[in-house]
Known about the structure:
Layout: H1 2-26, E1 28-32, E2 47-51, E3 61-66, E4 71-79, E5 84-88, E6 91-94, E7 97-98, E8 111-115, E9 120-124, H2 134-137, E10 140-141, E11 145-154, E12 160-161
Antiparallel strand pairs: 1-2, 2-11, 3-4, 3-11, 4-9, 5-6, 5-8, 6-7, 9-10, 11-12
Amino acid sequence: MKFWKIIRDLIPYAFIVFLVIIIRTYIATPVRVDGNSMRKTLEDGDILLLYKMAKFERNDIIVLDEKEDEEIIIKRIIALPGETIKIQNGKIYINDKEYNDEFAYGDTSDYEQVTLDEDEYFILGDNRLISKDSRYFGTITEDEIIGKIVFRFWPFSKIGTV
């Protein structure tokens, strides 16, 4: 009888652990910024909430699995599937219209014109001086994106939506 009471008492805790695992695996999880490629928007050490079920739009900050170096990186979506992008003389053009590059920190190096396939995105880090992004490894596909950053938890002075 005592054994079954212990099991019954543990069921709520097991359910909570199960629920946390499901949420972190499929819905949302915290991530920490490691590096300065998104400076001044995000700083090294910021703690963010990654939403894994998001639809992606221009200017969203995303987390992806960069396969070449096997690392997780944080970047901004600049061009969407089906669009044409080029960077010329430090200016970004999407479908031949100049993009308002309000997030950039530093000069943006040139990139030859490319038209994205229906599942491709062009991404850049906000700190264009040091960012390893689509200018370095090319476009990315949606299956490489882990999710979208939606909230900053740390530092408390900057807590809120991103």
